[in-house]
Design goal:
One of its GO terms (cellular component) is outer membrane-bounded periplasmic space. GO terms for molecular function: hydrolase activity. The chain is built from seven helices and eleven strands. With about 250 residues, the protein is an alpha+beta fold. The strands form three sheets. Strands 5-2-9-4-10 form a five-stranded mixed sheet. A hairpin with a 2-residue loop joins β6 and β7. The longest helix has 18 residues.
Length: about 250
Amino acid sequence: MARLTKMGIPLILVVWSIMACSRYFTPTKPQYTQYGISGEIPADSAYIKYYSPYQQQLEAEMNRVVGYTDVDLTKPSDAPETLLGNFFADALLAEGRKHYPNAEFSFGTKGGLRTELQQGNITVGLLFELMPFENELVVLELPGQSVQQLAQFIASTGGQPVAGIRMKTKDGKPVDIEIAGKPIDLSRTYTLVTYDYLANGGDNSRGLEKPSKRIDLGKKVREALIDYVSQQTKEGKNINTQLDGRITRNQ
């Protein structure tokens, strides 16, 4: 006689029912279809109608002119100082000082600047192309020894975008370093404006690892560039960056 559960249902029937409800599927032959994306695919009018207002709004903002550059802002790879680098570092320092007035110098890297700016109108879209990343401004208080290490990195990599600091390089080493017009003092603490990617060790930068103090400003570098160019325009100025010898090579 089958053993009964408390509810009077044969136990063997319960077990069989559970097993019967468990199904296992095993693929017998893999099949897939590859769809190529090209101009041959007909446009979906309903989808286009949905996103068109957003596209128009985006394009209007990207095409908005915020300033004008009188010169081509270029970044030759073999030059220790470049027009694009000077423009970028000047903007970093100016915008950083709005939040931290005592900031003394700024630092970026050539690799972070993704395009050059040709003479003519500067649009929001061009500045997005120049700095497409979500990097944000950071202020670092650095001991003099750390600034010396940073200068060594700048010299050994053939020069990087800087403002507020001047140096000569010889055999890949920095000499005659000046900050705010005065020779570097290794016993002092200096205030640098840069961005979080570099402050976190990006681009193999050196000298930023152990700041005495770090302040994250919560403002994207791209926004800082837009504000900087817009401010120049409000003051009736075009961008007219020049090479001024902030980094030179000793032969």
